[in-house]
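User: Fold this; tokens only.

Assistant: Input:
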Amino acid sequence: MRRCVPVATNVGLAGHVRVLAQMARELGKAKEAIMFADEASQGLSLTNKYCWNERVGLFWEYDYISRQQPPYISELSWWTL
């Protein structure tokens, strides 16, 4: 059973939400643009909080059951750079 969400999923999702914010701005939907931009910012903030490993200098997955990073580097860690 997988106990964590791949870090690349979180980073990719934030990137897509940023695109939605830009699209909303281009369409004159200021309220929606702000909502999407805030969502992207919050997602990246949480990813930085839980997935950044300062010791190694890479993003790691985060095990939400044990509430810690697993003892291995995911191949998806490199994708986030």
